[in-house]
């Protein structure tokens, strides 16, 4: 039972982070092989900048010292001889004697997942509230009762939303451009990001174990069932919007690759 709670509270967020990274890396590789290695900068410069700004903001919150920042490497400055060319960076330093700063590396390394999700949610909310409502209702339906979900109803409601006037169509087109630009590059955590999060992530697991195991031993499972499971459902609901968006962008990249190549 204790392992189940740990799998929910620690494993689910980690799985979401790795899944988003995998999907967006796949999309980037596809667009690079289709239109060239610098295309992701032109098509995803907003995502790169939000990615790096998220690192910077979380580094500030956890009191890391900012050594050097470059939000975007211009296409003509990219070193294509590198296996994974650097498109932007935030270099930080922290004290090994500060547990707060050390734990912060887990959140700083994965910060683009939170930052890009927040910005995409805001864009949906500002420009396409009806589509946001449909997508959130779809996620809630899949979480609460996946067997009752109907793709026919989803497509019917989606087509109904697409009946825009010219002004709304312009806003929706602009919103989709922003979302694609952010999703294409924003969620892709580098190997350095993941590596910097690894040790702190293990410490978070140990910390959670120190809380959950005694609670299970003293039969405080009602508390865990209400708060921990509720938290996990909230996390899944929030990030499912990003996962669904990332899957659509990845699918679009593969369609483009199919028609061009």
Task: Name a few traits of the molecule.
261 residues; mainly alpha; two-stranded antiparallel ribbon; 9 helices; 77% helix; 4% strand
Describe this protein's structure.
The structure is a single chain. 77% of the residues lie in helices and 4% in strands. It is mainly alpha-helical. It has one domain. The protein has a two-stranded antiparallel ribbon with strand order 1-2. Helix 2 crosses helix 4. The radius of gyration is 20 Å and the shape is globular. The mean pLDDT is 84. Keywords: Membrane, Plasmid, Transmembrane, Transmembrane helix.
What is the radius of gyration computed over CA atoms, rounded to a whole number of angstroms?
A: 20 Å
- Helical fraction equals over 70%
Strand order of the largest sheet: 1-2
Domains (count):
1
Residue share in β-strands:
under 5%
| Total beta strands | 2
Helix segment tally: 9
Keywords: Membrane, Plasmid, Transmembrane, Transmembrane helix
Protein name: Integral membrane protein
Transmembrane segments: 6-24, 103-124, 169-189, 201-220, 226-249
Organism: Lactobacillus crispatus
């Amino acid at each position: 039972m204790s392992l189940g709670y740990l799998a929910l509270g620690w494993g689910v967020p980690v799985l979401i982070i790795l899944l988003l990274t995998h999907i967006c890396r796949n999309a980037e590789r596809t667009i690079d092989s289709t239109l060239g290695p610098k295309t992701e900068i032109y098509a995803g410069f907003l995502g790169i900048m939000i990615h790096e700004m998220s690192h910077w903001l979380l580094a500030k919150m956890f009191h890391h010292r900012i050594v050097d920042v470059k939000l975007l490497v211009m296409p003509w400055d990219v070193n294509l001889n590198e296996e994974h060319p650097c498109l932007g960076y935030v270099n930080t330093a922290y004290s090994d004697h500060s547990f707060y700063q050390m734990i912060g590396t887990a959140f700083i390394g994965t910060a683009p997942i939170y930052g890009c999700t927040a910005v995409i949610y805001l864009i949906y909310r500002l420009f396409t509230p009806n589509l946001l409502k449909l997508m959130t209702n779809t996620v809630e339906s899949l979480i609460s009762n996946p067997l009752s979900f109907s793709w026919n109803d989803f497509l019917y409601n989606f087509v109904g939303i697409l009946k825009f006037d010219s002004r709304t169509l312009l806003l929706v087109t602009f919103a989709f451009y922003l979302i694609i630009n952010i999703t294409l590059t924003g969620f892709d955590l580098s190997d350095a990001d993941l590596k910097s999060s690894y040790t702190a992530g293990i410490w978070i697991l140990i910390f959670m174990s120190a809380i959950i195991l005694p609670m299970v031993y003293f039969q405080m499972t009602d508390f865990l069932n209400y708060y921990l499971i509720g938290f996990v459902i909230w996390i899944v609901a929030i990030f499912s919007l990003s996962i669904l968006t990332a899957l659509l962008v990845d699918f679009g990249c593969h369609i483009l690759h199919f028609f061009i190549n």
